[in-house]
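User: 3-oxoacyl-[acyl-carrier-protein] reductase, Neoarthrinium moseri:
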Amino acid sequence: MADRVKQIAAQLNYPKGMLAGQTAIITGSGQGIGAEAARLFANEGAKVIVSDIDGKKAQSVADSIVASGGSAIAVAGDMLDDAYLKTLVKKAADFGGGKIHIIVNNAGYTWDGVIHKMTDKQWDAILALHGTAPFKLIREASPYFRVKDGEPRSILNISSTSGIHGNAGQANYSLAKAGVAGLTKTIAKEWGPNFGVRANTIAFGHIQTRLTQAKEKGAFITGPGGEKIALGIPEAQTKAAGPLMHADIPLRRAGTPSEAASAMLAVVSPLFSYVSGQTIMVTGGRNM
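Assistant: Predicted structure for 3-oxoacyl-[acyl-carrier-protein] reductase:
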């Protein structure tokens, strides 16, 4: 996929990469889809700000990009901390020579529970992370997007099929991810006419990440108050599905982080220069 993107870029006369000269903030890019996107964006010439709550992982991704000849810095912190958002935007602008061109709101996790057992803490934490934090980052970075310098500006908000169709056990996540699409359309309508800012949403289906791996592998994130939140899907649930696990996906498999990141690159690239305000389903055909 990455090689095909390079071929297209060469054909379109982007010898230094489709994102050459652009500065991109990618939240949650210390691992998984975000890390793949950071490397891919850098490979296409972007100056990448690796944003993640895990400083060691963020630095590792940035170091790998620099070692490969790309340009990146790590700015670690908590997306729920307003002071961090200010620092993130300032360091990104400084790194980009006073400009920011791309924001990818990718950071997040799930904290599931059926409706009648979901706590206020679960509800508030997921809405804050997936809804309020992206809004606050975009608002903080608005001076760098509401400009008329002839350069491209793009905001990509990551959603999920849970936000499109709902999902049992994910009332909080479904509401937050549904709201992401509304935020995206509002940005497109407010900042498109005078500033040419494009804003789009990608709704991912089943992608191979720590959120979809076996819960028994022990992946967790530290939530509000230091609480450990287990990530993943119980093995019993996936075993019960058996060969029908991907039966409703026309491609009959889960997507890879690389495929997910490639879709993200495509949406922020010149290949999608006339696409704005859209929710793009990256699902292998599921939920057509």
